[in-house]
Amino acid sequence: MTSIVLDGLVQGLQLALLSVGVVFVYGLGGVLNLAHGQLAVAGGLAVAILRSARWHPLLASTAGVVVAGSLALLLDRTLLRAAYARRGEERLLLGLILTLGVSFALDGFYALGAPNVALTLRMPSPSLEILGVRVRTASLAVGGLSLLTFAVLLAFLRGTRVGQAIRCIIQNEVGAVLCGVDVERVRTLTLFVSGVLAGVAALAQGFSSFLGPEMGTEFTILAVIVAVVGGVRSLTGTFLASLLLGLVNSALSYTVGTYLTWIVLLTVAVLTLLVRPEGLLAYWP
Amino acid sequence: MLVVQGLWAGYDDVPLVHDVHLAVPGRGATAVLGANGAGKTTLFRAIVGLLRPWRGTVRFDGELLSGHPPHEVVRRGVVYVPAERELFPQLTVAQHLELGAYCAPGLFRSGLERVYTLFPRLAERKNQRASTLSGGEQQMLAIARALMAAPRLLLLDEPSTGLAPRLVAELYRQLGTLLREGVTILLAEQHVQAALHFCQQVYVLKDGRIAYGGPAGALRGDPELYRTYLGQAPGPPAPGGPGHP
């Protein structure tokens, strides 16, 4: 029982890492980035390739995160400009179609260019005992990485001018513009940060099991489910929804198996949409 | 100070502002009057860059404003307070003021003092969320947030709409203080009487065109002129002196 809960919490933290980028980009710019999972895969594959070229793990990981962030930056500076030039529903639709196209293109690119590359990150020892409970060191790594990332993210949102601007744009874009906030620049920065977060999520995936070139769509769907359940504009909601879905996922994997788990997760998302369309928490803390 | 020349603007294919010329002199208040839908808001949005003008130019102190994005217009000292106020519902009064000083962080402390002196009610409510404020307080907050950016020209769109008469009078007293501090004000109003008493210069916008431009005194003193441009005859002077509708 303890191990199911612990496992669920760790899975939840990893899920949060993956989803928060989607929530950010949607909350700030009204674009639901369907290529988010593919950004994570780009980072993960980059780390795997650099590791096989005998780079130091820390250096390779950093480089992978930068690759994911840069790809997001490129997306923002090129294709997404067309979406951001429009408003409201038009922007949402064009954003969906563009990022969906990018996700297909990237999937194809990975399948052709790196069909056999996979990322696995190993801790020095597979498990250790804490207070009588046997814990996978990989779980500790994932949990630690997520919590550290979230601490940095919160400090950034609360403590910096740009973070302040991000919170305001999410509440009222016009209001932020009237205060002199350069929304376009903040949006670009946000997409970069979301890419970086996707890269970190890929590292977490590398620790917990492995990351392969075909996993982008799966990541994207998970992130979108979390965003739907947690509320597409809420960081706290994302966090809670991630933990919840992580626990559900872990409990179900132990009892009914992985295939049914997917169905249940999607059902949770649909039920949330029916009962509370704005998500569990509609706004920021 | 602000010079608008041959400005055309609108939404989609519908022009709402036709070939507008106007000049706002520094130090003082200018009003843009007109019925609902006359194009006042469209004109203001085009001036501050929230709406891209189709044709024409907007200059501020000789420098071109048109073509610059709205956040840069703020940095140049032209700040817009829309009728919708555009506050952040979940943020407190103090957080609004902090964000108002986003592009003038060096002036934050002095700005805060100035704003709390002008609107003591906001100081009392500084830890309250914007969504819990009354309509009058929200209007004060919108103006206060704009002041934190240290504007030289303040564009106020329908500041008195939805306010009780007592609050309108208070608001105009506060705007009078701003004028004395050297802020130039461009005002769109439906409250014709209040605006005519407050402003030195008046433009009347009709179906997106300037129908009248001149000193406010001329309109105030000439019932014939008044009827021609503003439709209804002016009522008897309201008790309580200038500023009272």
Describe it.
The complex is a heterodimer of chains A (285) and B (245). Chain A is mostly helical. Chain A has a two-stranded antiparallel ribbon with strand order 1-2. In chain A, helix 7 crosses helix 9. Chain A starts with a helix and ends in a 10-residue tail after the last helix. With 245 residues, chain B is α/β, with parallel strands linked by helices. Chain B contains ten helices and ten strands. In chain B, the strands form two sheets. Chain B has a six-stranded mixed β-sheet, with helices on both faces. In chain B, a hairpin with a 2-residue loop joins strand 4 and strand 5. In chain B, helix 3 runs parallel beside helix 6. The longest helix of chain B has 16 residues. The C terminus of chain B is likely disordered. At the A-B interface, helix 7 and helix 8 of A face helix 2, strand 6 and helix 3 of B.
Helix share bin of chain A: over 70%
Q: What is the helix/strand order of chain A?
A: HHHHHEEHHHHHHH
Rough outline of chain A = globular
How many DSSP helices of chain A? 12
Structural class of chain A: mainly alpha
Helix content of chain B: 25-40%
Concise description?
The complex is a heterodimer of chains A (285) and B (245). Chain A has 285 residues and is mostly helical.
Topology:
The complex is a heterodimer of chains A (285) and B (245).
Chain A: H1 2-29, H2 36-52, H3 57-77, H4 79-84, H5 88-113, E1 127-130, E2 133-136, H6 137-159, H7 161-171, H8 173-178, H9 183-208, H10 216-230, H11 235-255, H12 258-275
Antiparallel strand pairs in A: 1-2
Helix pairs in contact in A: 1-6, 1-9, 1-10, 1-11, 2-3, 2-5, 2-9, 2-10, 3-9, 6-7, 6-9, 7-9, 10-11, 10-12, 11-12
Chain B: E1 2-11, E2 14-24, E3 29-33, H1 40-48, E4 55-60, E5 63-64, H2 70-75, E6 78-81, H3 93-100, H4 108-118, H5 120-124, H6 135-147, E7 153-157, H7 165-180, E8 184-189, H8 192-198, E9 201-206, E10 209-215, H9 216-221, H10 223-230
Parallel strand pairs in B: 3-8, 3-9, 6-7, 7-8
Antiparallel strand pairs in B: 1-2, 1-4, 4-5, 9-10
